[in-house]
Amino acid sequence: MSKAIRIHAHGGPEVLTYEDADPGQPGAGQILVRHTAIGLNFIDVYHRSGLYPPPGGFPLIPGSEAAGVVLAVGAGIDWLQPGDRIAYAVNVGAYSEERVIAADRVVKVPDGISDEQAASMMLKGMTAEYLLRRTFPVKAGDTILYHAAAGGVGLILGQWAKHLGATVIGTASSSDKIELAKAHGFDHVINYKEQDFVAGVAAITGGKKCDVVYDSVGNDTFPASLDCLRPLGMFVSFGQSSGPIPPFSMSLLAQKGSLYATRPTIFVYNAKREDLVASAKALFDVVLSGAVEIKINQRYALKDAARAQSDLEGRRTTGTTVLIP
Question: From 303's CA, which of 12, 92, 108, 228 has a CA 20 to 30 Å away?
Fold first, then answer.
């Protein structure tokens, strides 16, 4: 019997249970996949804790990205066959040995990219892609600020932004994380526990501030992030690892310099099949070119998902982490 991690109620890591789970057989437009590696992300924690309502209710199999091998193909699928290597980023369901999934949500993994790399970079890497290329199209000469620079998205985005010609500023909480971020494209990294990052950004930019702030931290970095932006700059909130941003008046954006603010999600940006394919291709291309390197910093067995999530929440992980079925 195939195994999976299930959640039957919201709570801490202890609610993640390792159980038998029959994936069933693929119907029309679906495929059956055997996972070889599964990505670990903060959105998994949000679904477990209840910060984000779990799609479909309970019991819930969490997990948003994985890579694996096609075992069976349902009717109407002529571009995939058993044995093909695939990867995906969806909402839930990845914490499993096998699963049935809609074929139009997966992409083939090209030669030169391992299953572990693919599993660890689909959600994080395509997030970096839409942030840098579509939400605020970064170009040479731009100055950007990215919070949590040593995290999974940060280590990809830092390299990619540097490749695009930007000046890349980050924040991190320790000397080890600062060095890691600097090794992955960041020109400047501010230790936010020792220095006010607003003052740090002002000093680095000579008072000109940033064109865009990418913020997945939320409560702890708001509204200070707005003070890091030049007039007409853009605040991009795409996560809330420290808790949600409290409600605020739109007039605050006017007071801070006629700023733009947006709250994007990857699932809207890649809802159309053509956008998903284009995003994955851009990611695969930049990795295969060597401009962005994907390293796996932590590995856990799937059955140890509770420990993995606990370490993620406790800031004891850096970069990318995978669960191995």
Answer: 108
Domain extent, residue 231, equals: 124-266
- Amino acid code (one letter) for 95: Y
Rounded Cα distance between 317 and 48, Å, is 18
Total number of domains constituting the chain: 2
Q: What is the pLDDT of residues 216-238, one digit of tens each?
A: 998 899 999 999 999 999 999 99
Pairing of strands 85-89, 65-73: antiparallel
pLDDT, tens digit (0-9, with 9 covering 90-100), for 108-129: 999 999 999 999 999 999 999 9
Let me know if residue 278 belongs to a domain: no
DSSP per-residue string spanning 94-150 = -SBSEEEEEGGGEEEPPTTS-HHHHHHHHHHHHHHHHIIIIIS---TT-EEEESSTT
Question: Mean pLDDT over all residues of the chain?
Answer: 95
CATH number of domain containing 312: 3.90.180.10
Same domain? For 178 and 78 the reply is no
